[in-house]
């Protein structure tokens, strides 16, 4: 008789028990990855080439490619939804860890902001419809349809472990993921070129080269361009969709992470459709906390907003005002990063006294979260190390240089210790998950009974404190819940730490996402590396740093729930 395998309820089944359709599982994944890589490289080539006037790649070519990719991805999503609706057996399992509610909620929020951005872009291009290509107006409309279809798809299907048309599903998911990454790159390039032009003073009424008409690339001048944005409503539309770019960027990245988890779950076999472990039943903010973390986090959030507004107002003024704005900006960031570093360290110290077992079971969502946290942090690491070299080697020893150096060092320390805290938190078991091989050091004082009659038949047993006996008239059986009050303070501290870091990461996301660029206002790095090299470093690395903050927010929210 063959041995019966009993896997973890949310663990993939062993290889010998796998379905014959999955014999070529690695080959199917390789095929889908190759498709996504080739499509993404083509899109990246056109997008990067279209960002420069000297390259004969017109903006209409980029819009046409992105529009085609979004249409194909939307058609595949509709096919997937129709197939799963007609064949319920196509999704026999659902991954309880995939697509948590806060991730889907963030996707909906950023999707709504992306729809508003598409409305602004449509209004902007419609302001001079006579001299614009139809694809420029069609592109935001198609993107709005794509966002609606994809958001609905990810909301209802993020947990699916589909078991039909495996290779086709993998290729469709990877193509949709490549489409989102292409949209993300287009938004990053547009925003980066706009920032470079705004700080170099070489831009005109048109905000960035992607909006420049084809005639200018052919050799025409701005004065001859009949498509200038001169009306007040056109200026509103133009500035409106530029400030909404950060939400579009985050939407594309959120969708990409959820699509990747779905791709990993294609053909996955689970022992039970009811996962367990880290899936919370309810989320209640500020519950069982000391309120110190939320209050201090909200205080820093409000102060950060005031510093950001002050910085944006003063940085465009005189040189003296710019220097004052940089001192205030760096001072706030140094205080905020220093507190975050200490709080992250204290969280790691608290875990040294935590008796919860480590969760080593297979979890694609957690694996992706850890990889994204580590990978996205490299962008801010790179900027910080470039700043350290510039300040130490070539900067005059003044207050601004000292603040810049302290800011760069604290940025590295904060990312490191925060990653350590988050990753260890994600690998901790739920509350009450004690290791089986060793009993707790301080056993609970009490007895747990499953039947009320057993309590009455006991001999004169000494009364047990904290023994909760349910009402005999209740239809449920008697259940005793014995808590460990000596461990409760650790849970409260971890919740406070999570909320504090969450609020701080939100304000540190808002500042660079909505235009704060001390990297260019502070001329130390520009003078040391030259504007072209430094702009390339910042424009490549900073989007990863911005994404890190938002991804850290979602991870810290999960840490709060798990604590």
TrEMBL record:
Pfam families per record:
Otopetrin
The record ties this protein, via PANTHER family, to: PROTON CHANNEL OTOP, PROTON CHANNEL OTOP2
Please list where the region (Disordered) is annotated.
Answer: 1-20, 199-219
Q: Which family does it belong to?
A: Belongs to the otopetrin family.
What is the name of the protein in this document? Otopetrin 2
**Known catalytic reactions:** H(+)(in) = H(+)(out)
Segments crossing the lipid bilayer: 30-50, 62-81, 101-117, 137-156, 290-313, 325-351, 371-393, 497-516, 528-548
The main location class comes to: membrane
Stored InterPro entries = Otopetrin (IPR004878)
- From the Swiss-Prot or TrEMBL record, state where the protein is found: Cell membrane
Instruction: Give one GO molecular function term.
Output: proton channel activity
Give any Gene Ontology cellular component. Answer: plasma membrane
UniProt keyword annotation of DNA damage present:
no
Q: What keywords tag this UniProt record? A: Cell membrane, Hydrogen ion transport, Ion channel, Ion transport, Membrane, Transmembrane, Transmembrane helix, Transport
Q: Which domain of life is it from?
A: Eukaryota
Membrane topology recorded in Swiss-Prot or TrEMBL: Multi-pass membrane protein
Where composition is biased (Polar residues), the residues are: 199-210
């Amino acid at each position: 008789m063959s041995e019966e395998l009993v896997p973890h309820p949310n663990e993939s089944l062993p290889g010998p028990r796998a379905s014959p359709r999955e014999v070529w599982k690695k080959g199917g994944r390789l095929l889908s990855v190759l498709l996504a890589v080739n499509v993404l490289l083509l899109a990246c080539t056109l997008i990067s080439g279209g960002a420069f006037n000297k390259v004969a790649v017109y903006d209409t070519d980029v819009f046409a490619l992105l529009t085609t990719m979004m249409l194909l991805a939307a058609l595949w999503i509709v096919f997937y939804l129709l197939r799963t609706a007609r064949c319920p057996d196509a999704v026999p399992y659902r991954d309880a860890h995939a697509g948590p509610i806060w991730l889907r909620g963030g996707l909906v929020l950023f999707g709504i902001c992306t729809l508003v951005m598409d409305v602004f872009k449509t209004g902007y291009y419609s302001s001079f419809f006579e001299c614009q290509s139809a694809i420029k107006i069609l592109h935001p409309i198609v993107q709005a349809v794509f966002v609606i279809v994809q958001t609905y798809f990810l909301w209802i299907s993020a947990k699916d472990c589909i078991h039909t048309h495996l290779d086709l599903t993998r290729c469709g998911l990877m193509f949709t993921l490549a489409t989102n990454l292409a949209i993300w790159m287009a938004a990053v390039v547009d925003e980066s070129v706009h920032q470079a032009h705004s700080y170099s003073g070489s831009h005109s009424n048109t905000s960035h080269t992607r909006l420049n008409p084809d005639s200018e690339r052919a050799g025409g001048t701005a004065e001859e361009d009949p498509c200038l944005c001169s009306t007040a409503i056109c200026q509103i539309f133009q500035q409106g969709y530029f400030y909404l770019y950060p939400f579009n960027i985050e939407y594309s990245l959120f969708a990409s992470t959820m699509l990747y988890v779905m791709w990993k779950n294609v053909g996955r076999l689970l022992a039970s459709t009811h996962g367990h472990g880290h899936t919370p039943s309810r989320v209640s903010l500020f519950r069982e906390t000391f309120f110190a973390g939320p209050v201090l986090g909200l205080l820093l959030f409000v102060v950060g907003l005031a510093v950001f507004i002050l910085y944006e107002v003063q940085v465009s003024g005189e040189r003296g005002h710019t220097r004052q704005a940089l001192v205030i900006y760096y001072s706030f960031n140094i205080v905020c990063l220093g507190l975050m570093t200490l709080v992250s360290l204290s969280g790691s110290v608290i875990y040294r006294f935590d008796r919860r077992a480590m969760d080593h079971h297979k979890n694609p969502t957690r694996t992706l979260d850890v990889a994204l946290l580590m990978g996205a942090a490299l962008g801010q690491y790179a900027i910080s190390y470039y700043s350290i070299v510039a300040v130490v080697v070539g900067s005059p020893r003044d207050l601004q240089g000292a603040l810049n150096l302290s800011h760069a060092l604290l940025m590295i320390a904060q990312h490191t210790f925060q990653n350590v805290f988050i990753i260890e938190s994600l690998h901790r078991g739920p509350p009450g998950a004690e290791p089986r091989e060793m009993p707790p050091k301080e056993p609970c004082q009490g007895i747990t009974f499953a039947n009320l009659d057993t309590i009455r038949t006991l001999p004169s047993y000494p009364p047990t404190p904290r023994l909760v006996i349910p009402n005999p008239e209740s239809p449920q059986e008697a259940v005793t819940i014995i808590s460990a009050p000596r461990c409760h303070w650790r849970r409260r501290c971890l919740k406070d730490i999570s909320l504090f870091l969450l609020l701080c990461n939100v304000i540190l996301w808002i500042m660079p996402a909505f235009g704060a660029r001390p990297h260019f206002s502070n001329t130390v790095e520009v003078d040391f590396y030259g504007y072209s090299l430094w702009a390339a470093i910042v424009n490549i690395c900073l989007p990863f740093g911005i994404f890190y903050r938002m991804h850290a927010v979602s991870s810290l929210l999960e840490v709060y729930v798990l604590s």
